[in-house]
Amino acid sequence: MPLDMRWDVFAWAVFALVLFALEVMAPGAFMLWLAFAASAVLVVVWAVPGLSFLLQAVLFVVLGFVSILIYRKWFRGNDETPTDQPALNRRTDQLLGRVVVLQSAIERGSGRVQIADAYWTVSGADLPAGASVRIVGADGMTLRVEAVD
């Protein structure tokens, strides 16, 4: 029995392998889901000979969207794991509630404090240098402070 080469099956197999290889070289879980879609099209093209290229391409696009939606809904949405350090890598959140001494007076709503080895811009009511203030919030990298009674 002679082997009849089906170029469409071969092309989808190569395309799926290239997508898997791209995922390995630049991981990010995006090409992986497209590779799954290409693999599904490969199976459909192998099982149903004679599908037009346009129908194959439409099937790949639809399966690609579906696989990425599945990834976004079930896999990516479950990244919230409880942690004992919820403010890790959110430096301003780590400073909330801390009492510090003003390095420079708050004048016209803006002043400066030193925390460890870093200087921070602060905003709040006008206060003299040396006054104790509590960090109550942040606007970007500017800390909002209020006077400590």
Entry keywords:
single chain; rod-shaped; 149 residues; OB fold (Dihydrolipoamide Acetyltransferase, E2P); alpha+beta; 4 helices
Can you walk me through this structure?
The protein is α+β, with helices and mostly antiparallel strands and 149 residues long. The chain folds into two domains: 7-78, no CATH class; 91-147, Nucleic acid-binding proteins (OB fold (Dihydrolipoamide Acetyltransferase, E2P)). The chain has helices at residues 7-25, 31-47, 53-75, 91-95; strands spanning 99-107, 110-115, 118-123, 132-139, 142-147. A five-stranded mixed beta barrel has the order 1-2-3-5-4. Strand 2 and strand 3 form a beta hairpin. Helix 1 (7-25) runs antiparallel to helix 2 (31-47) and helix 2 (31-47) crosses helix 3 (53-75). The radius of gyration is 29 Å and the shape is rod-shaped. It starts with 6 loop residues before the first helix and ends with a strand. The mean pLDDT is 86.
Topology:
Layout: H1 7-25, H2 31-47, H3 53-75, H4 91-95, E1 99-107, E2 110-115, E3 118-123, E4 132-139, E5 142-147
Helix pairs in contact: 1-2, 2-3
Quick synopsis:
With 149 residues, the chain is α+β, with helices and mostly antiparallel strands.
- What Rg do the Cα atoms give? 29 Å
Could you tell me the mean pLDDT?
86
Backbone structural class = alpha+beta
Taking pLDDT < 50 over at least 5 consecutive residues as the criterion, the unreliable ranges are none
* Biggest beta-sheet profile: 5 strands, mixed, barrel
